[in-house]
Amino acid sequence: MQASRWHDPGRLIAQRARQLGQSSMEYTVVVFFAVLVLLVPDASGDVPLVQLANAFKRFYTGFAYAVSFSTTIMPM
Known about the structure:
The protein is mainly alpha-helical. The chain has three helices and no strands.
């Protein structure tokens, strides 16, 4: 009995083999554009990656300041 072309296992394997590299290529393109956006300076000459690092520094400084006010009362 001959398998129909719609249920041919060899055809399904060949289709999967063609699609195996597709997602890795899509991830590569997305990561490339994300890095490009973070590294290319804007109109004022600031690099977004440096702005992001400075924002994290400011946040952490504020967080550390707020945590320094907390007190732990331990029962004796």
